[in-house]
Structures are given as C-alpha cells and as structure tokens.
Amino acid sequence: MGLALLLGLFAFCVLIGAPVAFALGISAMAAMFIEGLPLTLGIQRIIGGINVFSLLAIPFFIFAGELMFHGGIAMRLVRFAQAAVGAVRGGLGIVNVFSSMLFGGISGSAIADISALGSILVPVMKDKGYDADYAVNVTVTSSIAGIIIPPSHNMIIFAIAAGGGISISKLFLAGVVPGVLMCLCLAAAAYIVAVKRGYKAEKFPGWTALALAFASAIPGLMTAIIIVGGVLSGIFTVTESGAFGAIYAFVVTLLVYRAITWENFKIAVASAVKTTSMVMILIACAGAFAYMLTYYRVPSRTVDLLTGITDNPILILLMINAVLLLLGMIMDMAALILICTPIFLPVMNALGIDPLQFGMILLVNLGLGLCTPPVGSCLFVGCAVGRLPMEKAVRTIWPFYIAIFIALMLVTFVPAISLTLPNLLN
C-alpha cells in the first residue's frame, strides 16, 4: 500500500506538471505519514540530502560554465575545431561535434553547449548550404558530450546518489574514453549523412591559421585541464577545483579574451544561481524519496525481479538499458540519476559490474533521453535555436541516435572503455 502510494503519487504529480523536486518530496512525505513515521524524519532526510561537502562543487562548475558561455570561449573553440577538421565532406558537421567535445568538456552542461555553440554554428551551417535539420540534429546530439566528458556536475550527483563511496576523480577519468568514443561515432554519422546529401568540404586554412586558432583556444582549454588535473593530482579537492576553475574562467574571459561585459556577467550569475537552486532542491527532496525506496526494499526487490526473469547478465544489462532509455525520454536527467542509482546499482553489484562503468552506462542512456521526444530538453532548445519544428528534426535524427546507441552498447559490454583510465590511479 505504502509503495503504491509513493510511486503513484509521484507519477500523478509529474503528470499534472508539478516540478519533479516537489513530486519527490510530496510523495515521500505522504508515504512516511501512511507508514506512521515521524514527519521530522522526512525533514531530516531532505536537509541531509544536501548536507554533503562535495556538493559545493556543483555551483562552482555551473558558474564556470556560464562564464565561459558568455565570455567568448565558445567562439574560439569553434574556430580551432573548424581549422582542425573543417576540410572534410560535411566539415561543419564534424566541427560541430568536436566543438561540443571541447566546450562540453569545459562547461559540463548540454544546455550550455547548445546555447553557446548552436547560436554560433547553426546559422553558419545554414549559410554554407547545410539543411536546417542536419545542423540542428548534429548540435543536439553532440551536446550531451558535456554530460560525459569531465568535469561534469552530473557525475557528482551520481557519486552522491551512490552513497558517496565512489571516487569522483575516478569518475572523471571514466568519462573521458566513453565521451570521446561517442563523439567519434557522431562524427562518423555526420560525415555519412553529409556525403549522402552532397555537402561540400571547406578549404583547409593552412597550418599557420591552425596554430593561431589553437593558441587562441589554449586559455579556454586550460579551464578543464586545471579542474580535472587539479583533482587527479591531489592538489585540489573537487570543491576546490570547481572554485579555482570559476575564478580562472572569470580571469580569462575578463583579462585575456576581454569578451565579458557587466551585463553578461550579471546574466551569468543569475543563470548559475537559478540552475544551482533547481539542482539543490532536487537533490534535497530526492534524499527523502530514496530513503522511502530503501524502506520498501525496492533495490533488493529489483535485484530479485531481474535475476528471477533471467540469470544471463547480458539480458539483464539490455533490460536495464531499455528501462533507462524509456525513463530518459520522459523525465529530467538529474532526477533520474537520483532515483535510478540506488535502485539499479545493487543489481550491477550483483552482476559484478564496476560502479564506475554503471555510471557511464547511466549517463549515456540519460544523455540520449535529453535528445528524444517527448521531454528532451536538448531537443527543444536545439530546435528553438535553429528555428526548426521539432517534428522535422525528429524525422531525420535517427542516424545520430544510432551513433549514440552504438557507443552505449560498447560502453555497456566493453568494461575497459570505462575502466582503463581509472585503473591507472590504483
């Protein structure tokens, strides 16, 4: 009865359009009331959900991404990518993918990636003769590189949802190869579609222009190197690296590129505060919801259910992937990380799958969900930036879905893709 109320009330709140954070909190408190648990326990769990020191890194990462979005770093990364890989059939599509890999790895946000790079590249691609749907589809699907390639605040959320026993520095390393692999698959899809549609190649600007573009991009690229390198070397904690990265991004955009204005700075601050508030409220309410899931033994029941259907680990992994893909199509990513991690992580442990690998499987799955209707936020933003009806984009986006799916299957069934770099720290 209590579990049915917990899940049913949560689903009802989501269906009527209530914010996911409120849906989590309301359903958890209602279940506690039905079970006769003191409501003060729910308040304690809500407060305890965000009483975690490493969560301080999230606002710093988000603020650094906003500063880079508004401070001219994106334009310089695009110029470097264009000089490096533009001289290929459908070169601007490949430039789009590799720009997302570079900028997403710095900003850690798919939405920031689309907003920054999409507003630059989509109009340019249209002017160069590329179809609007191609430009939007490449931009939307490549944007999820920011979720997987470190630094990513979603990795911190996963580590917290997993109980805090997972090294964030190892999570950062685990995301490098899967993120690059996914971008390579998307670049291949962009090339194949470009050849099929007869898009022309850009001219190679010359080695001098490439060197100058790279030199101009170095200060921006150093942001990710400082954040990730500081954590891996032990110089910084994750929180300290986020703070230093935000300071460095501010200095670069203000003194080196001289591209950020007072108005843009205020917009960056306001946007970072808004995003951070949404994430923190979600994490807080998910703490109470996760407690009730554990109270009703949902994780152990899920293990029994899946192993009762089959003991074949390949089939279980396929079923979990299918569930994550479906959930990713209809719910917010951060909420799903917080809900699904405590449910499926015990299943992965029972199968002998490393939590780092599961983290990458989870992030790629939910990243793909951001690009799919009906609730794909990246798809909505990309279509808005490209001024393209969503139905037209979805009609031709399937080659890029296939590319991400191939990367997902490789990450799922080839553990070395996720674990080789983290194992170097042992």
Question: If you had to describe this structure to a student in words, what would you say it looks like?
Answer:
The protein is built from 22 helices and no strands. The chain is mainly α and 426 residues long. The protein is globular.
Keywords summarizing the entry:
80% helix, globular, 426 residues, single chain, mainly alpha
Strand and helix layout:
Blueprint: H1 2-15, H2 20-35, H3 39-50, H4 57-70, H5 73-85, H6 91-107, H7 110-127, H8 132-142, H9 145-148, H10 153-161, H11 168-197, H12 207-233, H13 238-256, H14 262-295, H15 298-309, H16 313-328, H17 333-351, H18 355-369, H19 377-386, H20 390-396, H21 398-413, H22 416-423
Summary, kept brief:
This protein is 80% helix and 0% strand. It has 22 helices and no strands.
The low-confidence parts are: none
Number of helices: 22
What percentage of the residues does DSSP assign to strands (E)?
under 5%
> Percent range for helical residues?
over 70%
